[in-house]
Amino acid sequence: MSKATSAQVTPEPLMTLKDIRKSFATTDGEHLVLDGIDLTIQPGEVLALLGKSGSGKSTLLRCIAGLMAPSSGEVLIGDQELEGPNTHTAMVFQTFALLPWLTVQQNVELGLEARGVDAKERTAKAQRAIELIGLDGFEEAFPKELSGGMRQRVGFARALVVEPDVLLMDEPFSALDVLTAETLRNELIELIANHEFTISSVVIVTHNIEEAVVLADRVAVLGSDPGRIKALFEIDIPQPRDRDSAQFVGYVDQIYDLLTQRTVPDAATVNGKDDRASDGSPAGNDQPVPLTALPLASVDGISGLADILAREGTRTIANLADDLGLEVDDLLPQVEALEQLGFAEVQGGRVGLTEIGTEFAGGSIRREKLMFAEAARSQVPLIATIVRALERSKSKRIGAGFFRDALKRRYNDSYAQAQLDVAVDWGRYSELYTFDADRDEFTLDEPHEH
Amino acid sequence: MSATIGRRLSSPLPADVLVAIAVFLILFLIVRIVSAADVPLPPSNDSEISTDPTSLPYYAACSLLRMFVGLFFSYAFALIFGYWAAHSRKAERILVPTLDVLQSVPVLGFLSITVTAFLALFPGSQLGLECAAIFAIFTAQAWNLAFSMYNSSLTMSKELTEMSQLFGLNSWLRFWRLEVPNAMIGLIWNGMMSMGGAWFFLTAAETISVSGQSYSLPGVGAYAGIAIDEGNMAHVAWAIVTMAILVILVNVLFWRPLVAWAERFKNEQSTAQSTPKSAVLNVVRAARLPSGVGNARRSASGQISSAVTRFSRPRRTLVASSPTKRRVWDAVFWVVVLGGLAFGLYHLLVYVTKDSGFGTFIEPLGLGFLTMLRVAAVLVLSTLIWVPIGIKIGLNPRLSRIAQPMVQIFASFPANFLFPFVTTFLVATGISINWGAIVLMMLGAQWYILFNVIAGAQAMPSDLREAMSNMRVGGWLWWKRFALPAVMPAYVTGGITASGGAWNASIVAEVVSFGSTTLTAAGLGAYISEASESGNQQQLLTGVIVMSVFVLVINRILWKRLYALSEKRYSL
């Protein structure tokens, strides 16, 4: 934060993102990942990009890094448009991205070598970075001999040694265990505060709300599908921050609330999708593509969470996640699934079972299955669509390709497949229909006797 | 190796057809040029080869030198073309099917043409023969290695690619620090495995007849060839001993140390329990010399790297080139390519059908069918014998530690050295070569199946094995439900390689001689072999094309499906 200004005048932003849109080609048209992103990176700030998976936060970071071109809009460095890999930045990667065949020292030197720094200076600079980051003694080690925390420290050193203006971090702590992540987070805060390296700003991508609030001066919360900036929080607490302070908890709860709000697709999107669905799908308007995505939760996860909620009553999601040692990404799909099935209610960041949900949690295996089936076919759009289509079909079997194509019109390929996989899982469990993987088709289960 | 084969089978049908035509046209062109050039053939030099067993060490050294020169060119080719295919969409569309087709062309049958071509390039010297032998080694290894490089480049982790872009690694650094180390293990394993085929090709190439004249190069292959011609069993035995020593030495002194050294390139999260070890490597590491060499290499590399940085423009990867311009170029490209292919194909057909019309194809097609039956018999027999044995070996760690290097040495041993024994046996018992050729083809091809099945059985998860014995699954049920499905992917990999090897071997296995006896089977291999011997280039070209088509079609119809099935259902 060496360039941080104490003056009150708004300084020139280091980078400016103007109306960034990014879509990926799918087999059937385009999938919009980012939409209308306007953002600046100010000198001397730590900016967190927070969102669920699928919110395009990593894509946004890659646009900033110049690794990906936005479909429209521009990334400006000062007032210069970005045309290739952004040399003002260096990135710390989620899974470290170290070269296993190079020693720690060689890995740290790599970026300098690429910039043509001569061998002597390279060694000296790398030595200093290694020392500052607490890696001395490990210079000659190979990455595979190191623990996860040590490996990520090498990732830090490698990025910092090239003295970037902006340090980019792509979920840098999510591949580490909880304790190690905490240690490294604190070290990062110290590094930033001590001005040991001449970096100006940090942009960190995370799905961990507390992590964002602990580290960042500003938190940009991204909504999903497509990713848009839902809100921009200025975290006005001096470092080091006390996680138990009312102010801190206040920020965390606010953000949780924002993230768990059901996304209501706006009118334009709804119309757009319906138009495309009606001329694309063989069944036309009879079987519209479900607008609400299936939460990517397994049946066991859903039923497990219901059991916990039945035992513990209504809880805040933040608290629950903390107790279970989970992060937003791990818990929210289950919460959403319970909510969609009508088994739970979410309000103000708190989740609790409904009456029918309590009955579900307490039921026998047979009973749970029946309740799940009932709720799924009446409440969950994709399941309902599949069941309806099967009931109408003469042969009682439909190729999965039909639903896959429909989903691909709305989602990218891998997300469409993930949706279908969940639909198969839920359908098999609830015995609403079965799936024949060899033929890739859904078949209706014979109606079972109760 | 399995992933490499998957890449090979991934090329789309229309591309394969177009590229196959292009490759045939290139063969055609070579044949035409060579026959038009009317190369003055030097006199036969067979008499220069000494039959004294004491010259064998020298011959072994000559063969070895050729082998390493060929290996060097194969690696150079693989690095360049594998990398290129992985990094350029356009190159990929052409190179991948090309390599697939080239791997299916029986180059052994084309040897007489390449020898003549190289003799024309270096008239009046033995260099032409040397080049032809080295080229034969090259064709046994290069395609496979290139697929290995291509596969490694494609499967490079996304984060490493992004890292190299963001930290501004220039192409030189990227290639040597990222791509080559990333591909190293695959390249070394594939090199080790394909050397087996290379010895076979080399020994066949060291003694060759072109239009009735026979030529030899000083080497073990030539020594064995002459011993076979003379019917001298003692000399054949000496050649076999020499070859065995050679194969074992190359393994112990070259490949084992390399495999142990390559451990450091393993991209894994933790240190493995047991790692390959090599006493030779320890000795080399302890020596002082290589570190001095290393320093010199590093400083040279650093200078090249900074030169590359100085001369490369800043990358503008985000700026797209105009799509209409690209489309126009694409259209021009396709018009030229398709036009050229149609023109060439017309001339090729005119050439091969000028004597007897399209009837020319009837004989090789029928013979190809016979050879196909032989290849099928080789596969069925190898499967019946070696799959159960391979599974048993693989499940016993002590046994597989001994067996695996041995099998690998068997696979490397050029099977044509053993042919005289089978030939004399056939003569003595009066069994027809039409059946005997199956055994001859099997001598080389079977090891690929055994080797891969052992590896597959070793990889069976131990908890699955425990579960099977816990549930008392035994007898046929154990094979049917557990062991056979579990080794399926490895078996398919071995089967594809064995099938390719058997087709190639048919060229030398369907016509065998020992002393004054020559046995000829009815088959496409014999057809090609005879055409090559008599210098009938029209027949040779037809035979080689028909055989390539057989291999390509079988790959597509049988192996591609088996591979897809085994990857989908049986991969553990």
Summarize this structure briefly.
The complex is a heterodimer of chains A (450) and B (572). Chain A has 450 residues and is an alpha/beta fold.
What does this protein structure show overall?
Chain A has 450 residues and is an alpha/beta fold. Chain A folds into 2 domains: 15-88 and 164-259, P-loop containing nucleotide triphosphate hydrolases (Rossmann fold, 3-Layer(aba) Sandwich); 282-444, Arc Repressor Mutant, subunit A (Orthogonal Bundle), CATH 1.10.10. Chain A is 44% helix and 20% strand. Chain A has a 6-stranded mixed sheet with strand order 6-7-8-3-9-10, sandwiched between helices. Chain B is an all-alpha fold and 572 residues long. In chain B, strands 1-2 form a two-stranded antiparallel sheet. Chain B has a two-stranded antiparallel ribbon with strand order 3-4. In chain B, helix 6 crosses helix 8 (171-206) and helix 20 (524-534) runs antiparallel to helix 21 (537-570). Chain B starts with a helix and ends with a helix. The model of chain B has no long low-confidence stretch (mean pLDDT 84). At the A-B interface, strand 6 and helix 2 of A face helix 7, helix 8 and helix 12 of B.
Runs of chain B in which pLDDT lies below 50 for 5 or more consecutive residues are none
Number of strands of chain B: 4
Q: What is the CATH topology of the largest domain in chain A?
A: Rossmann fold
CATH homologous superfamily heading of the largest domain in chain A: P-loop containing nucleotide triphosphate hydrolases
CATH architecture assignment name of the largest domain in chain B: Orthogonal Bundle
Mean pLDDT across every amino acid position of chain B = 84
Number of DSSP E strands of chain A: 16
Helix count, DSSP H or I runs of 4 or more residues of chain B: 21
Which strands sit side by side, in order, in the main sheet of chain B?
1-2
